[in-house]
Amino acid sequence: MSGRDLGSGEGSRRSSRWWGLLAVAVTLVRTQLTTARGRTLATILVVALTVANLVLVTGVALALADEGEADHDADARIMADDADIHGSVTGVEPPRLGESPDRAERIADRDGVDHASPVLREPIRVDTPDADGSAYLLLVGVVPGDEPSTVAKLPTRGLEDERAPADDAALVLSRTAAAELGVEPGDELALEGAEHRESATVGAVEDGPDDEPPVALVHLEVLQSLSGTEGSGLADEVLIWGEDAAIQEGAAEAYPDAALENDGAADARALFGDGLALATSILSLVVALGVCSLLVATTAGMRVEADRRTLATLGAVGFPTESRLLVVATTTIATATAGAILGVALGVVGIRVTNALATATVAPEAVAALHPLLVPYALAVAVVSTLLALPYPLALAARTDALAEVGR
Predict the structure, then answer these.
(1) How far from 84 is each of 55, 253, 258, CA to CA, in Å?
(2) Cβ distance 71 to 211 under 8 Å?
(3) CB neighbour list of residue 148: distance below 8 Å, 6 or more residues apart
(4) Are 56 and 141 in a shared domain?
(5) Which residue from 59, 121, 219, 353 has the fewest beta carbons nearer than 10 Å?
C-alpha cells in the first residue's frame, strides 16, 4: 500500500472520529433536554437574557448617537452626484438636482411612497416691518406632506398658518432665529430676495438646532421665487418617506445618476462620534461578557458534575481525554448558541416594545434603533463569552476519574 493510501485512510479515520464525537455531543444535548432540562434551560435563559439586554442597550446607544446626525425624519434622500447633469454653477456652488418639483411629484405618486419633498437651502435677509430687527437666516424650502414631518430639525406643521394673509408666506422659525429677530408667532416679516420682496408671517417658533446658524422653514416655491431658481427647479436634495423598495425604484427612475442615501436605518459609525453613546455600548459589552461568562461557567460546571458518569463511560470505552473535552465544549457551545439566538429575538422584540411605549408616552420618536449588524454582534459576544467560560467546565471534566465513576 502506498504512502498516499495510508495518509488517505488515516485522514478518513480521523474525520470519522470527529464526526462521531460531534454526534455524541448532539445526542448528549438532546438527552439533557429531557433528563437535565432544568440545567440546560438555565444556561439557555442566562445567555438569552444577557444577549437581549446587550441588543436593547446597544440599540438605545445607536439611537442616541444617530440622533445628532440627520436633521430630518425622512426614510431616504437623493443627493446630486454629477454637476454637469443636475444643474449647478461649477466651481461656485455644489451640484444641485434639477426639475425637482416635477420629479419629486412623480416619485410621490408611486405605490409605497408616502411623500417626497425637494429641499432648497438659501441664505435670505429677513426684516421686521418696523426695521428694528434684521438678520440673515438660512431659509429651507420644503413641500409639506399630508403627515407631519421634520426637516432641518424643525416640524413642517407650522407652514400652514391660518392667521397669515392670503398673500403672505408662512415661516417656521427656530428659537435662535426668533430670538435674533425678536418676533413670535403671528408677527409679520419681509423676505429680501434677489429681485423682489416677499411678505411672510411667523407660523410657529420651534425648538431647532440651537448650536447652528438661525434657520427657518418656508414653502419651496416661495424660496425658489426669492432665489430665482423656480425656472430650473433646483434643489439641494429630495427627501422621501415610504417603503425602501418603492423609494429605490422611484429614485432610480427620477434621478438615475444621483446618489440615494437610506436615512431610515441608524448609522453604526455614528456610535464612535458620540462619547456618551460609545461609553454606554462599551459598558453593556463589558457587562454582557462578564455576566454571561460567569453564569455559563457556573451552569456548564453543574452540568459536568451531573454528567460525570457519562464522561467516565466514554473514557472506559476508549475515548481519550481530549475527545471527552471536545464533547463538553461542543455541548456547552451548542447550548449557549441556542440561548444567543433566543436572546437576539428577545432583544429585537424588546426594542420594538420600548419604542412603542416611549412614543406613546414621553418620547416624540424612537429611543432605540435596530441595525442589521446587531445580530452578528450579539452572536459574536455570546460565542466569546462561552469561550471565556469554557476553561472551568473543561477543567472539571479533565479531573473525572473514569474507574471511580464507573464503579459507583
Answers:
(1) 45, 18, 12
(2) no
(3) 155, 156, 157
(4) no
(5) 353
Domain that holds residue 311: 22-67+271-407
Question: Where is the domain boundary, 240, 262, 284?
Answer: 262
* Contact present, 137 and 216 (Cβ < 8 Å): yes
Residue 234 lies in a domain: yes
Q: Is residue 304 exposed (0-12), middle (13-18) or buried (19+ Cβ within 10 Å)?
A: buried
Q: Are residues 63 and 81 in the same domain?
A: no
Q: What does the pLDDT look like over 266-304, one tens digit per residue?
A: 556 666 666 777 788 888 888 888 888 888 888 777 777
Residues 142 and 214 in one domain: yes
Supply the pLDDT for residue 7: 45
Residue 90 lies in a domain: yes
Taking a C-beta distance cutoff of 8 angstroms, is the pair 208, 108 a contact? no
Structure-block grid coordinates of residue 297: 461557567
What 3-state DSSP class applies to 296? helix
| Local confidence band at 141 (pLDDT 50, 70, 90 cut-offs) | very high
**Residue 91 pLDDT grade (very low, low, confident, very high; cuts 50, 70, 90):** very low
The whole-angstrom distance between residue 50's C-alpha and the CA centroid of its chain comes to: 20
The total of structural domains in the chain comes to: 2
Considering the domain architecture, whether residues 249 and 301 belong to the same structural domain is answered as no
SS3 5: helix
End-of-domain residue from the set 262, 289, 324: 262
CA distance 393 to 399: 10
For residues 210 and 87, state if they share a domain.
Answer: yes
Least Cα distance to 397 among 297, 328, 340 occurs for: 328
Whether residue 5 lies inside any domain: the answer is no
Q: CB count, 10 Å around CB of 285? A: 16
Number of residues that make up the chain: 408
Residue 372 has a pLDDT of 79
pLDDT of the residue at 139: 93
Residues 46 and 163 in one domain: no
SS3 75: coil
**360: its cell numbers:** 406613546
Q: Are the C-beta atoms of 235 and 196 separated by less than 8 Å?
A: no
In a domain, 226, yes or no: yes
